[in-house]
Amino acid sequence: MEHTTEHGSLGERAARVLDRNWTGTSTVPSRTLYPHQWSWDSAFIAIGLRHVAPLRAQTELETLLAAQWGDGRVPHIVFNPAVPSDAYFPGPAFWRSATAGRGAGAPAGVQTSGIVQPPVHALAAWLVHRADPRLSRARGFLSRVYPALAAWHRYLLHRRDLGGGGLVSVVHPWEQGMDNSPCWDAPLARVSPAPARAFRRRDLEHGAAGDRPTDLDYGRYVRLAADYRDGGYADGPCGRREFAVEDPSFNALLAASEHALAHIARELGAAGTARHARAERLTAALVERLWDPEAEMFFCRDLRASDSLDPRGPDGSRALVTEYGVSGLIPLILPALPREVAAALVRTARGPRFGLGGGVRLAPSYDLRGPAFDPHRYWRGPAWFNTNWLLERGLRLHGERAQAARLRAALLDVAAATDFAEYVDPYTGEGCGARGFGWTAALTLDLLD
Ligand code: 2M8
Fold first, then answer.
1. DSSP codes, 364-399
2. Counting atoms of ligand 1 from 1, which one is nearest the CA of 33?
3. pTM
4. Atom of ligand 1 nearest to the CA of 178
5. Rounded to whole angstroms, how far apart are CA atoms 329 and 333?
6. Distance in Å, CA 2 to ligand 1 centroid
């Protein structure tokens, strides 16, 4: 498809979206639905911004890291004080970071949430540096962000290895980022929802109810977040959570970012060897704990389901949630993935569940044949640009050039046709959710480069 219209080239249109979403220090995912700074959105946005505004890309990451907590966590939302506090739910009055998070070292000068999101930031920082190394060196960009990124990874690896097997657990579906994925249905079913009268959703003022999570989902999100907050956002043994899941995508992104931290360390004159080794250990732990060779898929591990099971016995596998979410394909981004695992994942991506071999425009967020598949409901089927961008990278990394090129072309076509939609129907490419969405525009710029 030709990407130039009377409104300018696709790259110019994408850059204009990022200009409109820029607040002066960071970029909002959407002016309407998400009017603050989101953690993994900012990482993807920086990856695109680096091509058109490298200084802004560096600032994007620096702003986020300035809100880091003393214990190393990078909060999933940094609230913009200029936006009315009830514009988004749950807002600053719900999270109460400065008070409830004091024990965990929440910063005093900025209001944030208390949960995290996938650690894409070191990967983003490295890519941002490489786009303009002269500017980066002149500003000391890497030497400023490196300690914060190292502390962030340390927090995840030391405070969040709740299963004790070398992988990080998420304690809320919002942490993993694919909020209402069917992968969470079983672990969430144990959580008693907060009553609907206890909160007021704001998302439905900007998005169609049929494209968003249900009220029951929200009740459970609110319950989990409120319990975590009321426990002072503590993670250690006394902070035992009702929901604790090891997720393939979250851990794969941590391993990819650990490789990126190794590159950053080397650029700064240190040895990166230990970090590469850690990334490889994470990759090995992913395969050992989450890979199912018969299914040819990575699955989530529900730590609470395994509580009653002997983790060494054959029943330990029952703790795997055998739903095919796109999260299970994301480890394809890892260079140290065993060759046969990578080949099997490519088969799954091309097969009938994800359709990349034919049948869909973009890979869905969930199994096309799964019982819970819904082509329009948020993370229960629609195709998203960040996950497809990661798959494109993974396919290229493992030598699947033609498949990657087809996916890249489809991403650009769909982004152009939907005015940078938040997510799309995987079959038709019809846009859903917000338009002028931050990471869709940013990753378009990255693919165009
Ligand atoms: C969505 O999540 C937020 C909560 O964090 C929401 O639904 O209000 C998810 O798609 C998440 O992955 C994304 O980072 C966020 C902002 O784009 O929106």
1. -SB-TTSTT--TTSTTSS-EEHHHHHHHHHHHHHTT
2. 8
3. 0.97
4. 12
5. 9
6. 31
